[in-house]
Every structure is written in C-alpha cells, then in structure tokens.
Amino acid sequence: MENRTLRVFKTTTYREKPNSDELAFGRTFTDHMFVMDYSESEGWHDAKIVPYEPLKVDPAAMVFHYGQSVFEGLKAYLSPKGEPLLFRPRKNIARLNQSNERLCIPPIDEGFLLHALKQLIHIEKDWIPSSEGTSLYVRPVIISTEPFLGVAPSKQYKLVVILSPVGAYYKEGINPIKIAVENEYVRAVRGGTGEAKTGGNYAASLKAQEIAAKDGYSQVLWLDGIEKKYIEEVGSMNVFFKIGDEVVTPQLNGSILNGVTRSSVIEMLEHWGVMVNERKLTIEELYYEYQNGNVQEAFGSGTAAVISPIGQLDWNEHQMVFNGGKTGTLAKKLYDTLTGIQYGQIDDPFNWVEKV
Ligand code: COI
User: Fold this and answer.
1) Residues where N6-(pyridoxal phosphate)lysine occurs (predicted)?
2) Which end of the chain has less neighbouring CB within 10 Å, N or C?
3) What is the tens place of the pLDDT at every residue in 307-319?
4) Domain CATH number, residue 125
C-alpha cells in the first residue's frame, strides 16, 4: 500500500551559498533533500523533504556490496523573470523507471516524484544560481538498503534527491575538449547495463578515464564492447559528428545511454531541416571521412555537459582535429538554442520547459 503524502521539515541552520561566478560542478549542496523509502509491505512510503544530512545506512546494505542502485541528472534554471524552470523532467523520471526495471528496483510513481521535485526546488529556489551557464543540478538516486549478503534484488530501498548549484562540467567550460578513443577497456556490453543509469557503468569507466587524464584528455570515447569498432558514447555525454551534409550519432543499441539532451538535439536539428542519421558508425569510417575532409564538427551532448564541442579526437597514433579545434557553427547554434530554451530566454516551440 503506497502512501503519497509529502511531509516537509525545514532546517534551522542555513548553509552559506557559493559565489555564482565561481561554481564548479557538483561540490556544493543545498539546505534540504527529498527522501522516500520502500519496503515490501508499504511500497514507496514516508516521502519527506528534510534538512540535508548524511544518511544512516546499515553497512550490510546491499548497495555497498552488489551495487544495486540507479540515478538521474536534470537541471533547474532561473528564467529572466526569476522563475525556476525544469527542462523535460518527465523524460528523466521515465528513464529512472527504465533504469529501475533493468536493476530490479520497484518502479516509482512518476507524477508523485515530479511533484516532490518541484516542491523541493521551490523550497530551494534561492539556491538557483543566476550567472551565465549556471543552474541547479537535480540528482535523484535510489539505493538498495536491505541488510543482506545474498545476491538477490533487495527488499528495501531509499530514494534521495539532492540539489547542487553548478557551473560547467568540464574545466574547459564551453570551449572544445580533447578526447581519446579507448582501445583497451570497455564501458558496457550489449545485454549489459549500458543503457541504464547505474553507478556501476561509471565505476567501470574510471580506469580508462584515469589513464587518459594523465595524458591530458578530458574524457575517453567508448567503442562497442564486442568488436571495439563502433563508436558508442563518452560516458558523460552522447556524441554527434557532422559528416558531409548530415549529422551522424550512434544509434541506441542497449549499451548506449538514451540521453535527454541527445534526443533534444536530434529534434532541434530535424526542426531546422538538418538531416540526422542515427546509425552505426565505426571509428575507421570516421577517420576515413576525416582524412577526406568530410568531418566538419564533433560535439557531445548531456545534461551536465550541455553541448560540448570536441576539438580533438585521438585514435591510437591518429589525430583528428575538428573545425581547427574551435567550436563549430552547428554546436554553437545548438548550445545557444538549447540553453536559450532552458533558461526561458527564447521561444520554446517544443514545449520542453516546465514551470516549478
Ligand atoms: C548528467 O549529464 O547529468 C550525468 O548524469 C552525467 C554525469 C557523468 C555527470
């Protein structure tokens, strides 16, 4: 029996807000958080907004041992009128349930979670930063909390939503980043959990990321886990290449994350009459097209990354420099239009933005 009441317990000690011009990504958290528990007998219950504080979780909780957890990432923006806006929150909440399904976590009521998110953001409205390129990152996470060491789906869970005022995800800001194609490690395999937003995918990516960072790369570009031929994603973003007069992005195949920004980019491009091709793309083909002067631009898309131009992509000894290492026209137009819509500064023909 699920209980859909949302109780609010306000803090008495307010934290100092960071300077909105100096925001990094994901280091500062607001005064309150949303929590809700799941048990077999009560379903999802005890929904409440409480002061931000560490969780008390049993060391035998299954999440610590077998990683049964999922998360989401979306953002709240401040409109020119000072109203908080959310960008396509229903898509993120629906994807949370898709990840839940893959990880054997009981589904949440999507309408109720949206209501809770809006309440939390409303309470934390003054935490939404106003400097250009900043926003309030919304991070829902579900962990399995049953104290049990057997490998099975947990019978207890906790959903937490925390908020973090953020600036750019990459230190380069919106300037082009340098990426290396990963040849040794793989992020996900077909039939695995690549399409789900689960911590294990990110844990699996750390080793390659660490090695690449030592060589001066911001991220690695993952190839498919079977043939190590097909371009998949970057881990923190989906990727797009302007090849000739079409934009190519790897087609969803179960091991690539179905990004909300990815689908927004596709819809915007199609709206502008740009040809988009979601298909398999090998790294060899990309290099071949590059050598023939046909790859004009490369960029990534993601909630945290927004639109991030890729200035350089290194594949073994081959170096691909796109658009002279500068932000391309298309990436710039996508960035400006997407953020214009997100911040409520321009018309939203797609009805993507929702008031809180
Ligand atoms: C996001 O873009 O919101 C993500 O969850 C990616 C994460 C690596 C920050």
Assistant:
1) 197
2) N
3) 999 999 999 999 9
4) 3.30.470.10
